[in-house]
Design a protein that fits this description.
The complex is a heterodimer of chains A (386) and B (259). Chain A is an alpha/beta fold. Chain A contains ten helices and seven strands. Chain A has three domains: 112 residues, Acyl-CoA dehydrogenase/oxidase, N-terminal domain (Butyryl-Coa Dehydrogenase, subunit A, domain 1); 109 residues, Butyryl-CoA Dehydrogenase, subunit A, domain 2 (Beta Barrel), CATH 2.40.110; 147 residues, Butyryl-CoA Dehydrogenase, subunit A, domain 3, CATH 1.20.140. In chain A, helix 1 packs across helix 3, helix 4 packs antiparallel against helix 6 and helix 6 runs parallel beside helix 8. The model of chain A has no long low-confidence stretch (mean pLDDT 96). With 259 residues, chain B is α/β, with parallel strands linked by helices. Chain B has a single domain, classed as HUPs (Rossmann fold), CATH 3.40.50.620. Chain B is 29% helix and 24% strand. Chain B has eight helices and eleven strands. In chain B, helix 2 packs across helix 5 and helix 3 packs across helix 4. Chain B starts with a strand and ends with a helix. Classes of the chains: A alpha/beta (386), B alpha/beta (259). At the A-B interface, helix 1 of A face helix 2 and helix 5 of B. The structure holds flavin-adenine dinucleotide (FAD) (2 copies).
């Protein structure tokens, strides 16, 4: 067993961390509050190949795995810049296209994922089918050489910044007549596609949208994999990368909060000694640090299993990592706020600004309850409860 | 144009640094060793010249075997190859001896331009560029905040306390740079992956034709006799503001003759 990164992974970690620190949390907060995006950071990370680390080299990517993408996600967050679109665009969309796209789709999209110039968001959640994607009501029907999509999606991140949205719809299987999931790459400016921004209580440069698909017509080659049979495996292939990178982003945020808190309590004294010398302050921070490190281990394990091609084991580990990370991140940020006293609630000290993001991490992209359902059923062998 | 960049591995200047108690040399064992900060600017300068004028960039490091880590990082920024001078006999070398070894290594590389940082964060003596140029019999353009290459003519803006001086020389020459000269790039992921496949040649003193007696503790022209820790910082005076804080501050400043 080996817990060390390769020298290349270590250098990637150091380099991404240095880039992230140059921007920093105040850059992130300023962008969020101004209703802008972190375009400069995205562009620089893209140019350096950090966003395309996992894209195969024949398409101009780095040829690394989800381990590398998780490093990028974690280190930017640990510098105070959690980039949610890493989870959607390079982690989900690029993986789905790389693993299940037709050769033409790979050629069309992967170079853009490799150099980060292409952003593709991901739309699965629906108002009446949140945690239960078997009830998706967005349907696609064949019409001549095209497909026509109609339905509604909710909470879709980054639609305003993305050229494409990967839409999960359902389509009637010609042979069985059953509705099967099918994934479509839809241009965000397609006629019939409209959006409404949802007001969210999260300090984030990324926005969530309602997405209305009103007879959106796409050519046949928009269907991922070119066949309805590709739908379910394509959908599943995006889930582990999503869980692993979102866990990495959460734990990076947690590290950032703990670092801020540790330096604050070491320097702040109100009873003649640093507040950090009180166990009532230090122990909660130490407890959070333990939870964070445990979650990081699970993220590393999940990424390792995924990169080794062991998808089923990776699925268990990725879900556990996602669960552990989001719990640890909420704990770490909440504790960091607490030990800052009143400063914890200010914008300036940059910890309360993290709360909405980590809190959302317990709900999205998969809620803690659904992970516990998964573990109960698949690890503990309990009957399906829903 | 063939450019040699001098890259030194040093203990991270942002962390606790020590000298060894047994032989008074820099303690590398317990330190987090990194590329000397100023050398990253030298690498960047070499790479941007290469981008404009073509040619080749070679990293040259003298240091213990652990320095390969810094060499790989340097290579991940983009240089083509590296030479690592490593020899147990080098331990304890003074600046004069180091310049002899580096000059010998550069001599074997047939360089048009040698770029280095203006100083290292551990030694901070600022003499290496001058001594190397002297040994090679070529010009030293030191302390550059700007470097322009026009054919075989090199022009720098030498940063001074008051402003800058314009100095020119023709190649081959040594140029040392300050951190005002550019903004070093971060290693790209492709650069990181390519670095492990780039040629890294290790040379011994024998390969360079330098006698072991001329370097290390035996050949040192200076000796660290003794060292001690910097005294702990004295607690400062805290001015509690109970209405007269401004007056107290001015009193302090005038008593120390700052105002
Ligand atoms: C910031 C943010 C960004 C998002 N970005 C995207 C995006 O880019 N694309 C996208 O498609 N979606 C996105 N989502 C949506 C997100 O994935 C869903 O909100 C999430 O999956 C939960 O679905 P829901 O909101 O419909 O909750 P519901 O399914 O309505 O669940 C409500 C509550 O009931 C619990 N629950 C539901 N079913 C069960 C059960 N069987 N057993 C136990 N408990 C249960 C849930 O855990 C939850 O606590 C985003 C959400 C947020 C907050
Ligand atoms: C929204 C808001 C409104 C406010 N409104 C008012 C107001 O109207 N009027 C007003 O006067 N103030 C107000 N405050 C200030 C508030 O009362 C203080 O922030 C609070 O008392 C904590 O003090 P502090 O911020 O200096 O934290 P600190 O005293 O610096 O404490 C930092 C951390 O160390 C812990 N700590 C400190 N000492 C010890 C110890 N001996 N043992 C164990 N743990 C310790 C604290 O519990 C905290 O977790 C407000 C604050 C906020 C956030």
């Amino acid at each position: 067993m080996d817990f060390d990164l390769t020298p290349e992974q270590q250098l990637l970690r150091d380099s991404v961390a240095a880039l992230g620190r140059r921007f920093g949390h105040s850059y992130y907060v300023d962008k969020a509050k101004a209703g802008e995006h972190t375009d400069e950071l995205w562009a620089e990370a893209a140019k350096l190949g950090y966003l395309g680390v996992g894209v195969p080299t024949e398409y101009g990517g780095g040829g690394g795995g989800i381990t590398e993408l998780a490093i990028v996600s974690e280190e930017l967050a640990a510098a105070g810049c959690p980039l949610l679109l890493i989870v959607v665009s390079p982690a989900i969309a690029a993986t789905v296209i790389a693993r299940h796209g037709t050769p033409e789709q790979r050629t069309a999209y992967l170079p853009g994922f490799a150099d980060g110039t292409l952003k593709c968001c991901f739309a699965i959640t629906e108002p009446d089918a949140g945690s239960n994607f078997h009830r998706l009501a967005t349907v696609a029907r064949r019409d001549g050489d095209d497909y026509v999509l109609s339905g509604r999606k909710v909470f879709i991140s980054g639609v305003d910044e993305s050229a494409y949205v990967l839409v999960v719809a359902r389509m009637a299987d010609e042979r069985s007549g059953r509705l099967q999931p099918a994934l479509f790459v839809v241009p965000t400016d397609a006629p019939g596609l409209s959006t409404t921004k949802i007001d969210m209580e999260i300090v984030s440069p990324e926005n969530q949208y309602m997405l209305f698909l009103d007879d959106v017509r796409v050519p046949a080659d928009a269907l991922v994999g070119g066949s309805v049979d590709a739908g379910l495996p394509a959908l599943f292939s995006g889930l582990n990368p999503e869980r692993i990178t979102v866990a990495a982003m959460g734990i990076g945020t947690a590290r950032y909060a703990l670092e801020r808190a540790s330096s604050y309590v070491a320097g702040r004294s109100v009873w003649g000694r640093p507040v950090g010398s009180h166990q009532g302050v230090a122990h909660p921070l130490a407890h959070a640090a333990v939870q964070v490190e445990l979650a990081r281990l699970m993220i590393a394990k999940a990424a390792h299993l995924y990169d080794a091609g062991r998808d089923v084991e990776a699925g268990v580990a990725a879900n556990m990592a996602k669960y552990a990370s989001s719990e640890a991140a909420v704990l770490a940020v909440d504790t960091a706020i607490q030990v800052h006293g009143g400063n914890g609630m200010t914008t300036e000290y940059g910890v309360a600004t993290l709360m909405g993001g980590v809190r959302a991490g317990r709900i999205a992209p998969v809620s803690r309850e659904m992970i516990l359902n998964f573990v109960a059923q698949h690890v503990l062998g309990q009957e399906k409860s829903y | 144009m063939k450019i040699v960049v001098l890259v030194k591995q040093v203990p991270d200047s942002g962390a606790e640094r020590n000298l060894r108690s047994d032989d008074n040399t820099v303690d590398r064992g317990s330190a987090n060793n990194v590329i000397n900060e100023m050398d990253e600017y030298a690498i960047e300068e070499a790479l941007s010249i290469q981008e404009k004028h073509g040619g080749e960039v070679v990293v040259l490091t003298m240091g213990p075997s652990g320095a390969t880590e810094s060499i790989r990082k340097a290579l991940s920024m983009g240089p083509d190859s590296a030479v690592h001078v490593a020899d147990d006999a080098l331990h304890g070398s003074c600046a004069v001896a180091t310049s002899k070894v580096l000059a010998a290594a550069i001599g074997q590389l047939d360089a048009d331009l040698i770029i280095c940082g203006a100083e290292s964060t551990d030694g901070r003596v600022q003499v290496m560029p001058h001594m190397i140029a002297e040994r090679l019999g070529i010009a030293a353009l030191t302390g550059a905040r700007k470097l322009t290459v026009d054919g075989s003519t090199l022009t720098i803006e030498r940063q001074t306390e008051e402003g800058y001086e314009v100095v020119t020389a023709s190649t081959p020459a040594v140029v040392s740079v300050w951190d005002t000269i550019n903004e070093p790039r971060y290693p790209s992921f492709k650069g990181i992956m390519a670095a492990k496949k780039k040629p890294l040649e290790t040379k011994s003193l024998a390969d360079l034709g330098v006698d072991a007696s001329e370097v290390g503790f035996d050949g040192a022209t200076s000796t660290v006799v003794e060292h001690s820790k910097r005294p702990p910082r004295q607690a400062g005076n805290k001015v509690a503001d109970s209405g007269d804080g401004g007056v107290q501050l001015v009193q302090y400043l005038s008593s120390e003759k700052f105002v």
